[in-house]
Each structure stands twice: as C-alpha cells, then as structure tokens.
Amino acid sequence: MDSRISARALSQALGGWRTREPAYEALADGIRLLCLDNRLAPRTTLPAERELALTLGLSRSTVAAAYRSLRDTGHIASTRGSGSVTLPLRRRDPGRTDPHEGMIDLQQASPPAWPGLAGTIAEVAGGAAALVSRVGYDVLGRIELRTAIAEHYRDRGIPTSPGEVLVTTGAQSAIHLIASVLLGRGDRVLIETPTYPHAADALRRAGARLVGVPVTTSDGWDLDRAEQAFARTLPVLAYLMPDFQNPTGRSMSALERATIHRAGERAGSVLVLDETTAELDIDRGPVPRGFDDGDPAAVIRLGSLGKTVWGGLRVGWIRADADLIRRLVAARPAHDLGTPEFEQAVATALLADSERIVAQRSTLLREGRDALTAALATELPAWSVPVARGGVSLWIELDAALSSALVMDVRSRGVLLSAGPRFSVDGGHDRHLRIPFTATPGELRRAASLLAQSWHDVRAGAPVSFVEQVDALV
Ligand SMILES: Cc1ncc(COP(=O)(O)O)c(C=O)c1O
User: Fold this and answer.
1) Ligand 1 pocket, residue 306 CB under 6 Å
2) Which of 45, 67, 170, 391 lies at a CB distance of 3.0 to 4.6 Å from 4, suitable for a disulfide?
3) According to the model, what pLDDT value does residue 96 have?
C-alpha cells in the first residue's frame, strides 16, 4: 500500500532545511536526504504544492521548482490526479552489485569482524553433519547458548537462569519483538534523543508515541526532563542505552541510573536496556552498576554480538523475567521462526572467548577514535568534538546548523553519512553530526579531509543571514 506524508510531518522531518540559495534547491536537497535516509520510503505521496507552500511559508512557485528539480534527478514522479510520489533510489551504475563501491561508508557503525571469527566458523562447520540432521532453527534458542548468555550476566553480578533468556536474530529483532508484545496503539514510550534510529522506527511502527529525553555529550541524561516525562506521561516502556549510548557515546553515572530506575518504577514503566554497545569500552574505566535491584519484571535487557564480533552474525538476545520470555516466545513465530542453529553454535563458542574479543574490540575502536579525533582537530578546529570513552561514534557539534547540507555535499565527494536529524526523536539536531569511528584510520583521515572541503563550501553557500544568526548562538 502506498503511503502519504502530511505537510506538517514533512516540515518536521525537514527541520532546518533552508541551508543554501536558491531556496527551491535547498528544499529539494532536504527531500533528497530524507529519501536517502529512508525516512521517506519509496512510493510515498508528497503533500500538494499549495499545502506544503503554506506550511513552510513559501510561495507555491518555490515548492513547484523544488518538485521539478526532484523530478529531474529521478527522486519523484508527478502525475495529474495522484500528485508527486517518491521513487525507489536509482543505481548510479546498474552494472555494479554494490552501489556504494568506492565510497567511504560511515552511515552504519559496523566494526569489521573479530579476526578470530573465520576460525570459529570453520571449527563449528566441522560439526555440520550433526547440525543438519536436526531442524536447524528454534524459536527460544539452544540451551547451550542460553546457558552461556546466562553465565555472562552472572559474571556481571546479575543472577540469571537460562529460562530468563531468549535468543533472537540480532538486537533489532529483539526490539521489534518487545515492542510488538508490550505496546498498543498510542502508548507512550520514553526514549533518549538523540537515539538509535532503527529502535525509534520499530517503536513507532508498533504504535508508540515517543517522548524524548535529551542526552548530551557534555552533560549526559537530562534527569529533570526524564523525571517529568515519567511522571507526566506514565510511559508503558522506556528504551534506554545506559552504556556508550548510540550516538553520543555517553554512559550513565550511578546517579543517572538510580534516578531513572526510581522514576521508571514510580511510573510503572518497563525499562528496556539496550546493551548492544555496552562492552565497547575503549578506555576501560570503572562501570557503575545499576538497574539490578527492585522489581526484576520491570527491567528487560537486550544484547547482541553485532558490534563486539560482527554485524553479519545475526545473534542477539533478550534477558527478562521468565513469564515475559514465554509471552515473547508465543508471539515470535508471526514474524520470525527462530535463530539459525549454526549461528547459535558459533555464538556459543564465541561467548567462551569473550574477554579476548572485548579486549581486541577496545584496541580497534581506540585506533579509530584517536585517528578521527586527531584528524578533526586539525581539519575542522571549529567543531566541538567530544571525548568518547567508548561506543562506536563521535557525536559532534558543528559551528553552524548545516548537518543535512553537509551530508548531501560530502556524499558527492564519496563519503556516506547520516545527518544529525536522523537520530532525533522530535526534530532538530541540525547542528550535530554522527561520525562512526569503525572504519580504518586511513579512511577516517580521508573522510575528515573531505568533510573539511565540504564544510567550507556548504558554509560559503549558506544564506548570510543564516550563518550569522547561527554564529550568534554559539
Ligand atoms: C544500540 C543498538 N541496538 C541495536 C542494534 C542492532 O543490532 P543487531 O545488529 O544485533 O540487530 C544496533 C546496531 O547498530 C545498535 O547500535
């Protein structure tokens, strides 16, 4: 079924789009970026020109010119009667299997596979004859793997039995499953902003109304806002990343954990703690405990091997109270019949090696973080680059709110990035850019140099009043 986007929703998604002259090209670029980010799915009907013009405070001819420009570049098609509809993105070179070949892809923060992975896979493949004699997938997870995951929690001081663990196909499917079981249409969900966008998408699709609580690289979680949001909206659940939050890289202090835990308990909310990034500890500092006292049914933890080992290994898990695990298992087959046993066997073997894996990750991410931080300090000294103690990315504050324009420009120079607003829950973050440091140091240095060239051009092309106004805010 085709969908449509209202003028108000499009205006919100566009954020501060007016980043260059002429205005119609800036508007067209804003819509192009939404298509590239998949925030505007193919076959979405755009608002009528008159309606969008009214909402954005533009003349109708400006919107008409923007739509014409989008037609010329193959991003939309317009037909009399059914309006303007976004098109699937065209391959630049249809002969190429990977449309991003030769580009530095910093859209996803995917570290390369752990070097020992190929060896582990080969070892597990040695037992393939026994494996293929069984069904090969299951909806709950093999007992060997659930036991290994439970032990992993016990080592962290969180007593866990295998009956409290469900193996999923990556953390993303865990988020989706939890949302589909616990949420109904219109339910409130508290979520950090900025956040991991695919979680926000999954929660919205389950019908949630998201309530954003700000997290900044300098001050962490806004506890006043969090307490107010819990008390006023009584969210059914809160989706949080307490350790090395994606994208800010911040970890909650003991006080932040305790305050949020208490506020969640008072509101009767279930706290969903996404710990996919929790072990990506670069500086290996002390990790505060939290969320492990009180009602165990009110805290769900989820994890994955996607960042610590390899994104291609689709193994994640949910740790929750045994009753909820049973409810999740009952609901799961509607969209997923289980995790492949081969991958589960690989994951079981890997968990036995987790200390070595985490140490290697830490070294790899440190190299990336240090290379990127140093390159940005040289190339773009006006940007405010935080100290990231862990995680996969830097959440950078730019010296002008031109994130989307920058991302469009640098794309044409061979660097793929997502603009700040992609990580926002309620609009904004035009001053921010997420740069993952999961690529090689060489690629990161090259990306920083191309970003500097782009930034020079984008700032120079922005309306004077815009840049001055922005500078006045700094
Ligand atoms: C915070 C967070 N949660 C979940 C995921 C999805 O993980 P998986 O690849 O295991 O589905 C990611 C991946 O980027 C992530 O950053």
Assistant:
1) yes
2) 45
3) 54
CATH number listed for the domain at residues 117-354:
3.40.640.10
Q: How far is the CA of 84 from the centre of ligand 1 (A)?
A: 34
Q: Is 421 in the pocket of ligand 1 (CB under 6 A)?
A: no
User: How many whole angstroms separate alpha carbon 22 and alpha carbon 29?
Assistant: 11
More confident: 420 or 285 = 420
Provide the whole-model pTM.
0.89
- Determine the Cα–Cα distance for residues 161 and 220; give it in Å rounded to an integer: 33
> Any bridge partners for residue 237, and if so which?
189, 270
The confidence score (pLDDT) of residue 474 equals 39
CATH number of 104-113+356-473: 3.90.1150.10
Same fold, 3-86 and 117-354: no
Tokens of 7: 């003028």
- In tens, the pLDDT along 93-146 reads 555 556 567 899 999 898 999 999 999 999 999 988 998 988 888 899 999 999
Question: Any idea what DSSP says for residue 172?
Answer: H
Of ligand 1's listed atoms, the one at least distance from the Cα of 174 is: 11
The 8-class DSSP code of residue 204 comes to H
Structural domain boundaries in the chain = 3-86, 104-113+356-473, 117-354
Residue closest via CA to ligand 1's atom 14 equals 109
Query: Measured in angstroms, how far is the CA atom of residue 301 from the centroid of ligand 1?
Result: 13
